[in-house]
DNA sequence: GCCGTTTTCGGCCCGACTGTTTTCAGTCG
């Protein structure tokens, strides 16, 4: 078995055990094993040959033993025992909001429901009301949840595609017959969700490359090889397309990246209006009399043209001077204040705002007034220490926007803070009018400088709350509050379409990793993707401003 | 299941919300 197949088996074992009602921590252990294997640099067989399996974090005796069974026999005792206990469709049911493992198991056992379609029909026919714990209201909500699941599930979130792409690159490049791997299409253009994950794979021996791809055991079912040698199929429920080419030329890369309208436009600017063979994309743009046009802006030809003419420069990672929305061990973060600050310095930033959760978010150990005072006592000497290094450590707070729109923080604490990131975490299910009022009230608070993850969406999991985003943007502009582009991979919130509208209304933005550990700063490209697709420049992003200007703005000086 | 260790076994995210129930189970953040 390949490592990918072994990882997949561990995930399937976890899924089945969950429906069977096993110990949740055991389930988590199998899922962790899957993620660990996916992230391994080396392959399992080599690691085992060196006798180093036990050195892999999250590998204990049980996972290690089953890994060896998979490596030597292609299966394991536990898998053979449980694999036919729960149909795959039942596991899928648990992905619907409001349906968890218990309900999935219940409808499977009592109604023999094994697919989402069957569950929908059962709900439409009122069959679920016969089950204990079900009533008309729950049945109605379930039908809505299934509709939402269909909307959400129809596209692949970028956060799911990128780690997969990294694995594809690593494995294919190590195979010996592949000379280059490039992610193209919507993913290269930085879209938050994709209709298909597309790759260009280069290799002199096309037959060998194709065989290598198919033999990895990635595909959920049989992959299809098209007439031109391309391979398509479903991997981990993602539509995936591999274009196999001898070398990755500029014209192939440009065409595969798309979109079609952009390719047609740039082709029209080329000599003779024809796309000839170019070694690189740079060569194409040069021939068209343009500078390099970033993939993220290619969906908007007018902006793309401005980039090409050198009139628009999109914000980039190196433009950041600050991060303004960060958590530490004071709430639900994994690193201390000084660890976060040291990391910020290492990354070349000059300002870091510490914004732990507020008291009402008890799950995340939000700061009570007493603990806030204690945090100030820790912060004060650190601020002096870092000031000596020309680094500003700011006392902030991610304050919950309470139901009445007030900030979740005592006035005596609020007055001591440098600024507040105001976010909605609780009571999502208000009407649009209520939520809009609530958020506009929070935006109007003088301490609020950033509106955190404005829509509350979670890609692939949850649609945002109902809110009038036009009214929110107007309020943010009026009160000089920056709208966050949260770079959490599952959030990418605000989305590019609204960022574009906001920018048109003169809004400011703040791109934040919402980091809960020093590694989470690596997420910034997800937020940048939204900003760059919307055509933002560094002037429109407050945490790209020079430190003096930024701090003055934060403090409303 | 794994982990950390008082090297043997308890802790591991826990409380709010919802729709059911008639005191609670399941889901979610």
Spell out the blueprint of helices and strands.
Blueprint: H1 3-19, H2 24-39, H3 44-49, H4 61-73, H5 77-82, H6 88-93, H7 101-111, H8 116-124, H9 136-153, E1 156-157, H10 158-174, E2 180-183, H11 185-188, E3 193-194, E4 197-202, H12 206-214, E5 224-225, E6 231-235, E7 238-245, H13 250-257, H14 260-269, H15 281-287, H16 301-308, E8 322-326, H17 337-346, E9 351-354, H18 369-387, E10 392-400, H19 411-414, E11 419-423, H20 432-444, E12 448-451, H21 469-478, E13 482-486, H22 496-504, E14 509-512, H23 524-533, H24 547-554
Parallel strand pairs: 4-7, 8-9, 9-10, 10-11, 11-12, 12-13, 13-14
Antiparallel strand pairs: 1-3, 2-4, 5-6, 6-7
Helix pairs in contact: 1-2, 8-9, 13-15, 20-21, 22-23
The protein binds one DNA strand of 29 nucleotides through residues 14, 17, 22-30, 32-33, 57-63, 97-103, 132-135, 137-138, 141, 332, 361-365, 425-429, 458, 462.
